[in-house]
Design a protein that fits this description.
This protein is of the alpha+beta class. Helices cover 20% and strands 35% of the residues. Among the domains are: 40 residues; 108 residues, Thrombin, subunit H, CATH 2.40.10; 97 residues, PDZ domain (Pdz3 Domain). It is built from six helices and 20 strands. It has a six-stranded antiparallel β-barrel with strand order 1-2-3-6-5-4.
């Protein structure tokens, strides 16, 4: 029988203690992350709002504003840049945000906090509270920031509703800080659904909500609410030649936020599956280059160490006589047609990192299907 010395027993006890402490710490962190994610996705109906079917429109406006406005914050950002003389000048920005959990996490637009080196949040009153960025997703123009110091007392949480069951004509309310005017309420209706808009990086955001509720600079990141006081969208853009409200505003649907926010809370970013290629739309070469198809995505370059490289996908290649050999053209993925880059982003977003997809390509005039394992590319490649 193998015998343990007293010293060995002591060492084992110490290691076991450290392992147990480490395990508790890890479990505690994971639990807090889970709780934070779970809290962020609450659909709890706010108290203090009468059923809209039995309340007057004026009463509904008053109750929604009174109940939810404490949960809408004024986000102030500061970045620093050198002018042409070399002097460092502060650049100020502002927007709105919604408190989404009791930990002090705030949902806003990515463009509100993009490049910010200092963030502060006003919850009404004279005091500003320092905040930090938890994570951001430029592709959906969404970000989460967190209060570094929380005020005394409970925070008002803006609950997330359901943007998949909206109807054109449905009443909506927007709360935000247009032109720095603290917690302003505007009302209107849903003017349209499933509107495609683009984030500042050019990526397509599908399914945006169009509303005629007045949205102006400073409203960005604030909630678009239904008559029950639940957030159904995040006010993000306006369509106006003058740059001010023209009755055509757009909100990112809360269904996207429900998918993105837990990842931002847990990872600080959204892990998107990618092939590992840089591309150009075939349509962009119309009337310039005679390509064998009129739709699809031309692979320009394949990054090393990616799923596309492992699968043998080809980009443009120089020939010995100085010409360029055409790369593969992606025509589809699994059962989805890929006519352009927007289609490619949309199809890839249906999948997870680590999955294998069947990529239909055109190579040397022949169609073939190539299995590609999706990976998380560290840059903007698709």
């Amino acid at each position: 029988m193998y015998r343990l010395t007293a010293r060995q027993i002591l060492v084992i006890a110490i290691i076991s203690g450290l392992f147990a402490a480490g395990s508790v710490a890890v479990v505690d962190r994971l639990y807090n992350r889970f709780q934070s994610s779970k809290a962020a996705l609450t659909d709890k109906v706010p108290k203090g709002i009468t059923d809209p079917s039995v309340a007057t429109d004026e009463q509904n406006n008053i109750e929604v504003y009174r109940t939810l406005s404490p949960g809408v914050v004024f986000v102030h950002s500061t970045s620093y840049a050198r002018d042409f003389l070399g002097f460092v000048e502060p650049q100020e920005g502002s927007g709105s945000g919604s408190i989404i959990d009791e930990q002090g996490d705030i949902l806003t637009n990515y463009h509100v906090i993009e490049g910010a080196q200092k963030l502060s949040v006003s919850l009404g009153g004279q005091k500003d509270y320092a905040a930090r960025v938890v994570g951001g997703d430029p592709d959906t123009d969404l970000a989460v920031i967190r209060l570094i110091e929380k005020p005394t007392g409970a925070l008002t949480v803006v609950a997330m509703g359901d943007s998949d069951k909206l109807e054109v004509g449905q009443k909506v309310l927007a709360i935000g800080n247009p032109f720095g005017l603290d917690r302003t309420l505007t009302t209107g209706v849903i003017s349209g659904l499933q509107r495609p808009i683009r984030a500042r990086n050019g990526r397509l955001i599908e399914g945006a909500i169009q509303t005629d509720a007045s949205i102006n600079p400073g409203n960005s990141g604030g909630p678009l609410l239904d008559s029950h006081g639940r957030m159904i969208g995040i006010n993000s853009q306006i369509l106006s030649p003058s740059g001010t409200s023209a009755g055509v505003g757009f909100a990112v649907p809360v269904s996207i936020a429900k998918r993105v926010v837990p990842q931002l809370l847990q990872n600080g970013k959204v892990r998107r599956p990618k092939l590992g290629i840089s591309t150009r739309d075939v349509e962009a070469f119309k009337n310039q280059v005679d390509l064998p198809v009129s739709e699809g995505v031309l692979i320009v370059q394949v990054a090393r160490g990616t799923g596309a490289a492992a699968a043998g996908l080809r980009g443009l290649q120089p020939t010995e006589n100085g010409d360029v050999e055409l790369g593969d053209i992606i025509l589809g993925i699994d059962n989805d047609k890929v006519a352009n880059s927007d289609d490619l982003f949309r199809v890839l977003d249906k999948h997870q990192v680590g999955e294998t997809v069947q990529v239909l390509i055109l190579r040397d005039g022949k169609r073939m299907t190539v299995p590609v394992r999706l990976m998380e590319a560290p840059d903007s490649r698709r």
